[in-house]
């Protein structure tokens, strides 16, 4: 049955449609607890528990894979990780845990998901959850080339290697069951636009931004088909946040008094709509697949617009260093401007959310989308 919240007249101006979509999503934010309980009562499609969380993507879900490759896109030094268990930097671009960690905890699997290349872990640790993500990567191979990080196709190769290790560890039958019942999370795309398309000339000379969106959607669709062919059935596809509101973009938006870059946010909305359409199309085309779209855009925008209600004091400036443009090696422990309490900040560095923000986003995604897998 279709809810009135799911329908929007198609003959309205795009700005009005965006506003309606925002209000719809905020209704879900406000009434999420009720919706969550409702879903638990109604959903019967996922009778088996999720035994593992398997993650692909960029810095939003990288737990330290970049520590083991020659790249400057790293965060394995203080003050990164200062609020993580043991107060140690792990390679997560955060003061603590990231969204995928909180989701693994919500599924009662483990408090954090380890990086596949981390030599401190064994296949026994990866059997219940692993991330192949690489900070700085994207759907486009050209994006991963910018900072010499792991491209998406290589993440998939690591996953194939992981499958064989898991089969050796658990036995073929048990391993295949884990691989089928696992929840696969995919989170990337921001770098394709901000690090690649809008920064370097090559892709802009080849594509309009609309055509580039379509180009990325084609890669995303192939990736889903490849995962499906390898046995994945429960897949969550993450959308883009309001990337025009990242501190780095606001800092450089001098002509608009450091407000959010609306054109970037519009691209995020357009791209998310295409991702959602792809998810719907493949859901009806691939037998047995349980594919969902996890959209962080509206909850992030709600946090930014209603920051005080979440206990935040700063939305445009990050916690680390001056909070205007620093991330990675520019975010140093010795910087005297780094904030003392990251919980007052939406962003940890100029590109990445704080642990508190990640927890809020994870809770929202769990209540509104991933509850079907519980």
Automatic annotation (TrEMBL):
It holds the Pfam family Lipase_GDSL. CDD domains: SGNH_plant_lipase_like (cd01837). Belongs to the 'GDSL' lipolytic enzyme family. This is GDSL esterase/lipase. It comes from Eucalyptus globulus (Tasmanian blue gum).
